[in-house]
Amino acid sequence: MTEFLAVTAAVDESFFTDRSGGGCIQENRLFCPDWVTDNYDRYLDPTLEHLILVGSAVAAGFLIAFALAVFAHRHRWLQTPFLAGTGILYTIPSISFFFLLLPLTGRGAMTAIIALTAFNLQIIFRNITTGLRNVPPDVTEAARGIGLTRSQVLRQVELPLALPEIIAGLRIATVSTVALATLAVFANGGGLGAEIVTGSNITFKTGIIVAGSIAVLMAILFDAVLLLARKALTPWQRAAP
Amino acid sequence: MNLPAASFGLFGEAFEFVFSGREAETGGVTVGGTSQVLDLAARQLEVTLLALAVAVLLALPAGLLLGHYGRGEFLAVSAGNAGRAIPELALIALMAAAVGVGMFNLVVALAILGIPPILTNTFVGIRQVDRSSVEAARGMGMTERKIITRVELPLAVPTIMGGVRTAAINIIATATIAPLAGILTLGDFIIARNVYGDAGVLAGAVLVALMALALEAALAGAQWAMTSRGMKLKRS
């Protein structure tokens, strides 16, 4: 089997210093809780890096997709080419995208963020477009009728009504990005993937499970926060039976 | 390939890597070249199609039945949400470390990634079929089995294929890190940089991207071919 030294040259010698003194690690059982309580500090930095990767990629993806969607809302004929373009970016596997950027941005967190942003665009763009399209024409016509300008209609009527769809898109994008960002390690982008690959190289199961679980928990947490945000931002939906 | 590689920079070197091969970074042997590229590409496609087939065979019938009888909505929908949260890298790494490396384990791990979107989309697609169409079919004397295969399934093809395409993209992307599970795919060029160098890494990235786009285009074509003529008319 190939060794992936390029990615994880440094498995430091203190890695297996078993502060608990138990036999679980020596036997490499599936999961060693003691190791986690003794070494949780090992995961703080990777978790923070992971948060930054995901936060930057989703924020950048949202800003770009939002601009594209609003522009295509005014100029409907652009929706098809925008959808096709973002579709290509979505289809290219992130791990491949990292290295397509290699001649341009080299290795590092920035490369990973660009690739993850490119992945996000379609999910967010599609949901904003659908949300805007599903606003009933009666409502926008009534808004125009009482004298609102087109941009006022967009800001005060259409976008608020599209908010549930928009946040639904953000939830899908965020949860997927948390999982995908583990691959950033191959681009030297840091994050929880570094711990997974380290664990993989020395077939240390607990290490893989801990880093993977933090990623899953992070995804669940982001999802819950966005769900709460939607409930707070769309109070009128609560009145509906 | 007589083009001067230097004029294209790293892309030129990647081009050379694919078509004529280069000396390994570790020295001695020649790596890359069309025969190794085709070998690894074939392996990646094989792994992807196998895993996709397993995922479809398991998730499609389950989704059809759950959707037809309107049962297990929570299971079918939350499977899709939970599936997105699985970190592919952790899944492959854990499978290799805890269960073992090799083709069978890899295909199982990749199929696990493919099942949620197919299951969710099949369920949703079947539930979205107009109930009056189903009642009409039942009134005509169709059996439940025929209602599923002749009425619900054709009407749900676009949604189901949406799920299959999502699954296929996830699987082919994750098959790129299959070398972690001991199966050498095109991802080996990307991951084992110490052997192939940056030219190999870039070549691998380009090949994986092209392969994913080709698979997506093929499935889009398959969807078009499977959509009944009546539904195409309705859309235009």
Word description of this protein:
The complex is a heterodimer of chains A (241) and B (236). Chain A has a single domain, classed as MetI-like fold. Chain A contains twelve helices and no strands. In chain A, helix 4 packs antiparallel against helix 7, helix 8 packs across helix 9 and helix 10 runs antiparallel to helix 11. The longest helix of chain A is centred in the N-terminal third of the chain and has 31 residues. The radius of gyration of chain A is 22 Å and the shape is elongated. Chain B is mainly α and 236 residues long. Chain B has one domain: Orthogonal Bundle (MetI-like fold). In chain B, 78% of the residues lie in helices and 2% in strands. In chain B, a hairpin with a 6-residue loop joins strand 1 and strand 2. The chains are: A mainly alpha (241), B mainly alpha (236).
Sequence-ordered SSE layout with sheet pairings:
The complex is a heterodimer of chains A (241) and B (236).
Chain A: H1 24-27, H2 33-39, H3 44-74, H4 79-91, H5 94-100, H6 102-105, H7 109-133, H8 137-145, H9 150-180, H10 192-201, H11 205-233, H12 236-239
Helix pairs in contact in A: 3-7, 3-9, 3-10, 4-7, 5-7, 7-9, 8-9, 9-11, 10-11
Chain B: H1 10-19, E1 22-23, E2 30-31, H2 33-69, H3 73-85, H4 88-99, H5 103-127, H6 131-139, H7 144-175, H8 187-191, H9 193-226, H10 229-235
Antiparallel strand pairs in B: 1-2
String of helices and strands of chain B: HEEHHHHHHHHH
The overall pLDDT average of chain B reads 90
- N-to-C series of helices and strands of chain A: HHHHHHHHHHHH
Assigned CATH class of chain A = Mainly Alpha
| Greatest chain-chain contact | A-B, 49 and 46 residues
Shape of chain A: elongated
Number of strands of chain A: 0
How would you summarize this macromolecular structure in one to three sentences?
The complex is a heterodimer of chains A (241) and B (236). Chain A has 241 residues and is mostly helical. Chain A is 72% helix and 0% strand.
